[in-house]
Amino acid sequence: MGKKATKEVQAILDKYQYDQSIRKHANQHYWGVHKYFREITSKADVARARQNVVGRIETYKKVYPLVSDDIEDMEKALGRYEDAVKKVLQCYSHDAFDFDYSAEGLMELINDIAKFEKQISEIHFRKMCQD
After folding, report:
1. What's the pLDDT tens digit per position in 100-130?
2. Do residues 12 and 103 lie in contact, with contact meaning Cβ atoms separated by under 8 Å?
3. I want to staple 40 with a disulfide (CB 3.0 to 4.6 A). Which of 51, 87, 107, 111 is the partner?
4. How many of the other CB atoms lie within 10 Å of CB of 76?
């Protein structure tokens, strides 16, 4: 049937499962494209999507001059991470997926979206100042 979620995890799932505010870049860059969503099946896939965002942000912090494609590249990576988090939220209890996060782990995934968004905004601001 499915894994049983703790009360704390279930509260997070109920709050964020259909919340579109955590899908800003996924909706912007991948609306109607389900490829990345389908590829997420384990915690390792989620970690890989997260590391992809972290790597791009760290790289573009060092790049000068920045171009619009650089910002879009980071936003697309964040969109793929948003898809990964959404997959965890939607399929947490399904046996076919390896998503056994604690309540703290789930909140960390969700909070990372805002953290990455802020970092990308700072890099975008630096790009605007250089133009």
Report:
1. 899 999 999 999 999 999 999 999 999 999 8
2. yes
3. 87
4. 19
Residue ranges per structural domain of the chain: 7-130
20 torsion bin: left (phi>0), alpha (psi -120 to 50), beta (else): alpha
What's the CA gap between 70 and 76, in Å, rounded? 10
Q: State the DSSP H helix or E strand holding residue 130, giving kind and residue range, or none if neither.
A: helix 103-130
Percentage of residues in the chain with pLDDT exceeding 90? 74
* 92, 101 contact by CB (below 8 A): yes
Task: Give residue-wise pLDDT tens across range 13-29.
Answer: 999 999 999 999 988 88
Q: At what angle do helices 7-16 and 68-91 cross, to 10 degrees?
A: 130
Distances (CA, A) of 71 to 56, 57, 77, 116: 10, 9, 10, 12
CB atoms within 10 A of CB 20: 9
